Amino acid sequence: MAEVWTLLLANCDVSGTVLAPLCSDIRRLSIASETEQRLLLLNRLQAYRLESLEGEAGGLLTAYYEPVFDAQRMPGNGFNTPLYAAPSGLASGRPWFSRQDIESLPAAQNELRGREIAWLVDPVDALILHIQGSGRLRITEPDGSVRTVRVGFAASNEQPYQSVGRWLLDKGETRDASWPGIKAWLQRNPQRQQELLWTNPRYVFFKELPLGADPSVGPRGAQGLPLIAGRSVAIDPLSMPYGTPLWLVSPGPTLAVSRLVLAQDTGSAIVGAVRADLFLGTGREAGEVAGRLKQSLRVWALWPKP
């Protein structure tokens, strides 16, 4: 309940939250017992099972995380894969150059010259950052000092997202489409790395953000609030508003889930009402679970009673 109450209090500071009818009581009970807090939620929220437009109650649960990679402010010593800030010619809603174009066409590269935020060693790590939407960099500055910064989503090229793991499965190239499985395939087929990466035309641009005083706090989601591991989910905002409390039930096999979460983020692959992407935290261990989690889901929206 401590984690849940932290989320509820933060949401009560956001204008227009669906929790507005409960916010005075949520603030009043911020130092109350867990029993009192549970009773408030039980008495004031009504559960509604979510279904697809076709009337199906079963959906899909995946997960995401905040990766951590080594980086350099300047290219060299193997650090030759750039992360870019958004180019000036980018227009919201209008498709820009594809991933392949960005990495091969002089016109696209000219638009991005001077927009480099940092440089990574592995193009696959850069793709992971593009898909996760944010991450931390242990970045070496030109003077040799090292500091940790956060990079967050700034914009995209508005191209459709295509899963490189799905491409490998459809081609019969692998049975393991997790990130460890994809990297294992690349070790066996290094000459096909560019072919693999270019199957996903979507490209993400970043902005550098301060890490903040508390390194345990996650990145900010689309709602504008910091994500909490295991309690924040990305949803389809066309299906429900940000800040909606949700009860997720998923039996596994990767992770058994039966818990209260809040809708705080979104992603291009998150479409429909019975679809959630659970934020699992920061670092490699969270990434190993997130990369393998793809399982059945049922969802209830917990809506304030009239």
Observed structural traits:
Ribosomal Protein L25, Chain P, 6-stranded mixed β-barrel, 4-stranded mixed β-sheet, globular
Give the CATH architecture of one domain.
Answer: Beta Barrel
Report on the biggest sheet.
6 strands, mixed, barrel
Average pLDDT, to the nearest integer? 92
Task: Find the count of extended strands (DSSP E, 2+ residues).
Answer: 13
In brief, what are we looking at here?
The chain is an alpha+beta fold and 306 residues long. The chain has helices at residues 2-11, 23-28, 34-44, 99-104, 106-112, 123-132, 164-170, 179-188, 193-197, 284-290, and strands at residues 45-49, 59-66, 68-72, 81-84, 116-120, 134-140, 146-156, 204-209, 232-234, 245-250, 257-265, 275-282, 294-304.
Describe this structure in words.
It contains 10 helices and 13 strands. It has 306 residues and is of the alpha+beta class. The chain has a domain of 143 residues: Barwin-like endoglucanases (Ribosomal Protein L25, Chain P), CATH 2.40.240.50. The strands form 3 sheets. It has a 6-stranded mixed beta barrel with strand order 2-12-9-11-10-13. It has a 4-stranded mixed sheet with strand order 3-6-7-8. The longest helix has 11 residues. The mean pLDDT is 92.
